[in-house]
Amino acid sequence: MKPSTLLDAHNQTITTQKLTLSCPILDRFLSGGIPCKSITEIVAESGSGKTQLCLQLLLSAQLPASLGGFSASSLYLYTEFPFPDRRLRQLSHSFADSYNTHIGSLSYDPLDKVLVQAVHDAHHLFDVLLKLDSFLVRRNSTQWPIKLIVIDSIAAIFRSDFDNTPSDLKRRLSFFFKISGKLRALAEKFGLAVVISNQVVDFVGNNDGINGLRIGNLPCLYTSGRRVCAALGLSWANCVNTRLFISKSEEVIGEGSGFVEEDGKFSVGMRTRRHIHVVFAPHLPPSSCEFTILREGVSGLESRDHLVANSSRQ
Amino acid sequence: MEVMRMAISGTQRGKLISAGYTSLSSLSSVSPSLLAKDLNISEVEALEILKAASHSSRLDTSGGDHAILTGAQNAWEMLHEDSCVRITTSSADVDDILGGGISCKEVTEIGGIPGIGKTQFGIQLAINVQIPAHFGGLGGKAIYVDTEGSFMVERTLQIAEGCIEDMEKDKHFRQRDIRAVKEKLLPKDFLANIFHFRICSYTELIAMINHLDKWVSEHRDVKLVVIDSVTFYFRQDFEDMALRTRILGEMALKLMKLAKKFNLAVVLLNQAATKCAEGLYQLTLALGDSWSHASTNRIILFWKGEERCAYIDKSASLPSASAPYSITSEGIRNSITNCKRIRMM
């Protein structure tokens, strides 16, 4: 057994490869992007943009290294139906438009580089992961190796099949660790970035219970005015390296607020604000970043709140 | 009197002493027949005494002065042996409750929920073990066994920079000395002295631990072994819990032996788990009750309001206590909100 070196032949530190999110602000927030050989989890309630982020990553992976991508294809394992194919197509058009100078050939279709597999339950997911090993060996000798695996979402397959009895919880726990162990081994062997999305559950009961357990930088997670916690509990939290949380809040915008939309008109009504937070990560400080979902994809917002939040934490 | 420690009967010992044989050397040149005559015993008995004497003197030359077994020491000697070397955690408060830091020759377990800073402690210690001797450190190297993939080079670099900055700020050293030393201290060198092993299955982990003895004996300057985390692979694939307990027990023994033999610190990072007892769910460290015997010291990290806290759950030599700490961009540091609030429990 030999240790891996942390310095290369030229005595330079070997930095972790990161996958860009195709947005400079979000990349800066994650200090470069989604790290390889590690599992990144995105926790959010439905409709807050976790699938949007996942889809964007599937395309970002195809970018050349000069733009922060891997020049690689990606694998999308989805458990929530239906597959968002229309949105992916829409994103791929704008992706092809904005990067056509880098991609070159006209026959290039980003959708060709996204592999999709439906997953129905935990057993199925584990089977797929077992088969992936030989698949990746074959695939990675081709021109477009797979460098990104996205599981969207992990909670769906675990929330239905298991009862809340000690024996079932134990069975579920052993699945968590088996799946996470397999993913980590694959990530290490093939240098993959792994992104897993997870749902939230409402927080019930008082603060003292085991559910009120604080995990990570945020004392409690709030989204849409509800207190929530990440689904699948404490044991799953041990199975990921980095956890990100998206919070959503509605904001009333009146004409008097002076908020001007891009087209010059005053917007009236409700506006959804989304923030992504670092819950825990081995390499990131506690921070958050606001983002918005546009037609062309997810994009970070440079906000004053973000700066204030950062300086107050120092 | 050396004859007191020979494996012979009391009467024989009494006869030896009254005949003037008190030291082992006085027995080394005497013949069995002469001894038999002097002690008024049979020659066979005299031969037995001489055998016991030569056995004792052999032990004496190989071991310490008064060893019953090779390598054994008495408590007095252990107390006076070059007082326990410790690795600082970079938080003075946590160091205080630990009696100066993580001690060498011992196995220390650090556990807590995700995001509390276990890996940060692991990386910090791997850097701090390298603080050179003239800055009060050990000047050793570190082995980092990574089972979870949480070891990040960029973070390690940051912590190394923070550590160097701290050393330069240290007021005990005069400006001139610092300049002389400064040239030698580069964050990169800190990275070069961390041997990082990425482990992908529990068989690999066991093989790694079995291999450590040989590996460390070839790299004597290793003063710290961090296993991050010891738990991960033992929470999957084990239907047979008795087997798991045996494997874990054996692993723990090997690590303790390693710590003693090479005078190094072993730090095991453990996850937190919920334990279901009589219908109530409690928070505890993973791997079960029998595992709690595996480490000499056990530190639990937890959130206390807005603050991170370290609590000594088990230690043979330290009182139970807790101390706040914080994680900054430079690494583990004292908690900012309160400097002096260590509570003895």
What descriptors fit this protein?
A: 314 residues, alpha/beta, Rossmann fold, nine-stranded mixed beta sheet, 9 helices, 14 strands, 32% helix, globular, B: alpha/beta, DNA polymerase, domain 1, 2 domains, disordered C terminus, ATP-dependent DNA damage sensor activity (chain A)
In short:
With 314 residues, chain A is of the alpha/beta class. Chain B is 40% helix and 22% strand. The C terminus of chain B is likely disordered.
Please render the helix and strand layout as text:
The complex is a heterodimer of chains A (314) and B (345).
Chain A: E1 18-19, H1 24-29, E2 34-35, E3 38-44, H2 50-60, E4 73-78, H3 85-98, H4 100-103, E5 114-118, H5 122-139, E6 146-152, H6 154-161, H7 166-190, E7 193-198, E8 200-202, E9 221-223, E10 226-230, H8 233-237, E11 242-253, E12 269-280, E13 288-294, E14 297-301, H9 304-313
Parallel strand pairs in A: 3-7, 3-11, 4-5, 4-6, 6-7
Antiparallel strand pairs in A: 1-2, 8-10, 9-10, 11-12, 12-13, 13-14
Helix pairs in contact in A: 2-3, 5-7
Chain B: H1 10-18, H2 24-28, H3 32-39, H4 43-62, H5 75-80, E1 86-87, H6 92-97, E2 102-103, E3 107-112, H7 118-128, E4 141-146, H8 153-169, H9 175-182, H10 187-192, E5 194-198, H11 202-218, E6 222-228, H12 241-262, E7 265-277, E8 280-285, H13 288-291, E9 297-304, E10 307-314, E11 321-328, E12 331-334, E13 343-344
Parallel strand pairs in B: 3-7, 3-9, 4-5, 4-6, 6-7
Antiparallel strand pairs in B: 1-2, 7-8, 9-10, 10-11, 11-12, 11-13
Helix pairs in contact in B: 3-4, 7-8, 11-12
